[in-house]
Specification:
Elements lengths: L8 E7 L4 H11 L9 H6 L9 H5 L2 H8 L3 E10 L9 E10 L4 E8 L5 E11 L5
Antiparallel strand pairs: 1-3, 2-5, 3-4, 4-5
């Protein structure tokens, strides 16, 4: 098996838009019932046009996208930073690029870009041969 080379990219994948029902379902399943994600009036009171989607819900898009791209590789480490909210009803795109290849793993930069200028999420993932996280 050949590991992907630096510069190799995962084609952009559309994600979302997430509607209020999907956000509420995630809140119930995750236990994160912060009202900022669920109450449009509260979201508006702090300057959002709609409630923001949970950041961890966006992180949850990364695993399946990378597995579909390279099913022979598994995530060994994943860390991300949330930069700009993705609001309920907004579409986004997930993209990834290989930054570095080691003898037995690769480091990828993963972004989720919403409709505004800045990314919603910037993450780094280490992938290595296998099918389950070690």
């Amino acid at each position: 098996m050949t590991l992907p080379a630096p510069g190799e990219k995962l084609d952009e994948i559309p994600i979302g838009p997430f509607d209020a029902t999907a956000v509420a379902a995630y809140a119930r399943a995750s236990g994160d019932d912060n009202p900022i994600h669920l109450d449009p009036a509260l979201a508006a009171s702090v300057g959002f046009a709609a409630p923001p989607v949970h950041g961890m819900r966006l992180m949850a898009e990364i695993g399946p996208a990378l597995a579909a791209w390279r099913p022979d590789l598994a995530i060994r480490r994943l860390a991300g930073a949330f930069a700009e909210p993705l609001l309920v009803g907004e579409p986004a795109k997930l993209a990834a690029r290989v930054l570095k290849r080691e003898a037995d793993s690769v480091l990828l930069r993963v972004t989720i870009q919403g409709p505004r200028r800045g990314p919603c999420l910037v993450a780094e993932a280490v992938l290595a041969p296998g099918s389950a996280a070690a």
